[in-house]
Structures are given as structure tokens and as C-alpha cells.
Write a structure and sequence with these properties.
about 140 residues, 7 helices, two-stranded antiparallel sheet, about 70% helix, mainly alpha, single chain
Length: about 140
């Protein structure tokens, strides 16, 4: 993605500036993408350099970009080692074991909840008032 490209360009810039001071400013151009501005080596500007310098700069850009890719591989390697370590850790503890959760008797509580819900629906009249409260007022 864009982050990898930026790392490659930064690495290429560092490699060119270390070997050939001032050359990067001659061969780079400013560009813009979704996440912001960056500078990159321009092939058109690179062709304007003398042939001797073109080959050297191209080699340095290639070397810098490869170094950036080598740095990027560190994170996935750390993740791989971590996952393998976790696997050995859990294997050492006996591996996966199913755990049964204990609780109340689920069958009884479900049926009583359903029965209570049915009773409350029966007590309501068509207009939404409670029949129970009407019966109590008649008894008084």
C-alpha cells in the first residue's frame, strides 16, 4: 500500500544521498496521493543525468527499495513467531479442553417464562387495559 511505497522512496532517498550528495534533488519530484504528499524518483529526470550517473542512481534506488521491503518483513515474522509460541504454550498446558458452563436447569426456566408471558397476554382486553384490574374494581 501507500505506506510501503513511502518507506521505499524514503529508503531510496537515503541511499542516494549517502552515496551521491545533491543528486536526489535533481531526480526527484513531488507527488500527491490520497494520504498526502511525497517525493519520488522521476524516470524522466533520471534520464537527464549523464549515463554514468543514471546507472549508479538506478542501482541505488533498487537497493534502497529492496532494503525497505526487507524491513517490512520484520513485522510478519514477529507475528509468526508469536503464533507458534502460543501454539507451543497451549500444547504444553494440555491443548484444547472443552469447558461446560454450569448454571440453573435451562429447560425449566424457559418453559416458566413462556407460561408467564402467555398468562399476561390473556389478562389484557382488546382495548389494551388489564382485565384483572377491572375484575378487582367490580369486586369492591
Amino acid at each position: 500500500g501507500p505506506l510501503i511505497g513511502k518507506m521505499q522512496e524514503d529508503s531510496a532517498k537515503a541511499a542516494i544521498e549517502a552515496k551521491m550528495e545533491g543528486t536526489y534533488a535533481k531526480v526527484s519530484e513531488d507527488k500527491t496521493y490520497i494520504l498526502g504528499d511525497y517525493t519520488a524518483v522521476s524516470d524522466e529526470k533520471l534520464k537527464q543525468l549523464p549515463e554514468k550517473d543514471q546507472g549508479e542512481v538506478s542501482g541505488l534506488v533498487k537497493q534502497g527499495r529492496q532494503a525497505a521491503l526487507a524491513n517490512i518483513t520484520v513485522f510478519p515474522l514477529i507475528m509468526l513467531i508469536s503464533y507458534i509460541s502460543l501454539g507451543f504454550y497451549f500444547k504444553g498446558r494440555g491443548g484444547y479442553k472443552a469447558v461446560e458452563l454450569e448454571g440453573g436447569d435451562d429447560d425449566d426456566s424457559d418453559s416458566s417464562d413462556t407460561a408467564n408471558a402467555d398468562d399476561s397476554e390473556d389478562e389484557k382486553s382488546d382495548d389494551g387495559s388489564d382485565d384483572k384490574s377491572e375484575k378487582e374494581s367490580k369486586d369492591d
